[in-house]
Amino acid sequence: MEYKLTFKDYNKALKKGHLMGLKCNDCGQYTCPPKIACQECGSTNLEAVHMKGTGKVVTYTVSYVPAEGRDAEVPYTIVMVQLDEGPWLMGNLTDVDPNRVDTELIGKSVKFALKMKVIPGDAYSIGGKEAEGSFARPTFVFA
How many C-beta atoms lie closer than 10 Å to residue 37's C-beta? Predict the structure, then answer.
């Protein structure tokens, strides 16, 4: 089987401010982040597509405990967004003070932020160089 959209290509697109996903040519559902098969029907008849990046917050959490080497990032708000195309995507909500987040956040409209946060590889990543260990974290702002 062949990946129609590899994580490496998905990550490169994120770093350039583009959200890529997969559309199933059998059932019409979208998958994001990329997988080898449709998350709805299991088909491998997929095509890489640009996603709109808009949706609603389904749930959230605020992280006060950093991963190793990321002390300067906390606190930050992590949201699970149901994209308009259907799939749920986890990312950071960047235009809100994490100390003021409450349940009012659920159901709010958000959009994919054009500027991604690039994270260096941590102690558990291979490498740490731009090409090897770093990745972009999807980020969202209020729509």
Answer: 16
